[in-house]
Design brief:
With 92 residues, this protein is an alpha+beta fold. It has one domain: Translation Initiation Factor IF3, CATH 3.30.110. Helices cover 25% and strands 33% of the residues.
């Protein structure tokens, strides 16, 4: 299991300990669907809320980093284990 700290104000923590307000299951979906599903969910969320995204597309790692850079949402943490990727984003 690997954790990446992406926002300096958040400590890296395990997926089971990270608080989130909504979850998107994008496992089995290929690009661009994980990003599109996440974007749609973020549109219905308040600023500061956290979304957890589950994905299996290896390209999603690069995609979520780029998505957060372009949109201003904070990528709090990402985890890769057993062919699955977990992302935590905070809505701007």
């Amino acid at each position: 299991m690997r954790f990446i700290q992406c926002a300096p104000i958040m400590a890296v923590c395990t997926a089971s300990a990270m608080h989130f307000d909504r979850e998107v299951d994008a496992r089995g979906l290929s690009c661009p669907l994980p990003i599109l599903r996440t974007k749609k969910s973020l549109n219905d969320m308040a600023s500061g809320q956290v979304i957890k995204v589950l994905a299996t597309d290896p390209g999603s790692v690069r995609d979520f980093h780029a998505f957060c850079r372009q949109t201003g949402h904070a990528l709090l943490a990402s985890e890769a284990a057993h062919g699955e990727f977990i992302f935590f984003l905070r809505k701007k």
